[in-house]
Give the backbone structure.
Amino acid sequence: MIATEGLTHLHLRVSDLAVSLSFYQSVFGMQEMFRDGGMVFLNTPGSKDLITLNPQGDGPIGVEGGIGHFGFRLKPEVELDDAIRAVEDNGGKLIRRGEHAPGVAYAYVADPDGYVIEL
């Protein structure tokens, strides 16, 4: 077994860097940490997670490619309806919502490129 501290980042190919950067900053409060070439690395404040937005390279954009979705855990004081509204107000869309178990609500939303995010 290799001892790790968890995942380092998700790398997303994006069609429009400015649109994707605005979406993740506005909706999830992510902060730009640094740039490497054309890629932008974003971090959720207070965590070690990173999302890399890459407007370059070959390959599909917004296609699952074996990854069905990734998720953000909402803070207890955040209402799911408010989170969905923030996604929609920033170019994303609601895919579906429901309950995993009684009282355990979720929503699947998509970012501007169609990447699926669970809230």
